[in-house]
Amino acid sequence: MKSSLEIFDLDTGESTVLLQTDRLIEAPNWSVNGRFLVVNGDGRLFRVDLAAPELSEIDTGFATKCNNDHGISPDGSMLVISDQTEGDSCIYTLPIGGGEPRQVTEQTPSYWHGWSPDGRTLAMCAQRDGSYGIVTIPVDGGEETRLTDAQGHADGPDYSPDGEWIWFNSSRGGTMQLWRAHPDGSGLEQMTDDDRVNWFPHPSPTGDTVLYVAYENGVEGHPRDKDVELRLMDLSDRSIRTLLPIFGGQGSINVPCWHPGGRRFAFVRYARP
């Protein structure tokens, strides 16, 4: 076993294995109807039905170098992918069942991470003017809006369910911590300040908690095959608890992974070498 696709239940505090494979798979998204997950592996996307879990390839047309930054539209009709087939990572959309991708971003590299609740805007991590920051763009393409300046590296943007906030991780304060800002870039606020290296915040569909991955102090970037913790912030008092220590990191929860009910989420853990 190389990859273990699992589901964590907040009510029981337990994790259940859905699928194990010798392939490297990453970044589970949960479908809007709650019936299947989408993961990537070997440059392709796969559907995993909860009722009969196996890797079923999704047709992504010419895009055969999909990375682990992909997701599902709020209405469940579309997929968004970040693909490197034609060079640096570029963002495309396509039908949920598969089909030919339609290009969204003209500038590269661009890595998708969040879809606004109204379905109109995509949030991404993008390298512009020599630094990686948080950028938004209309889902049909067009003018980009940069939310963060060039201070440090910013990554992993994801919208709150009410659309009022974009959460992300940034090293602008010196170490990689969680931050949030309104979609117009106002109200910038640091949300964690500890000795961990914190990445990929995902607000729950209920809006009361935020899931993220915490690396050990001193880790640079967001590598795979590390001892990490999946942590949950309670927004009522900003308290943080560790849900599960895993061997993972890159690929475990890079993208939105919550069940639509907000009490379960999907993740990938990896076998130790």
TrEMBL record:
<dbReference type="Pfam" id="PF07676">
    <property type="entry name" value="PD40"/>
</dbReference>
<dbReference type="InterPro" id="IPR011659">
    <property type="entry name" value="WD40"/>
</dbReference>
<protein>
    <recommendedName>
        <fullName>Transporter</fullName>
    </recommendedName>
</protein>
<dbReference type="InterPro" id="IPR011042">
    <property type="entry name" value="6-blade_b-propeller_TolB-like"/>
</dbReference>
<comment type="similarity">
    <text>Belongs to the TolB family.</text>
</comment>
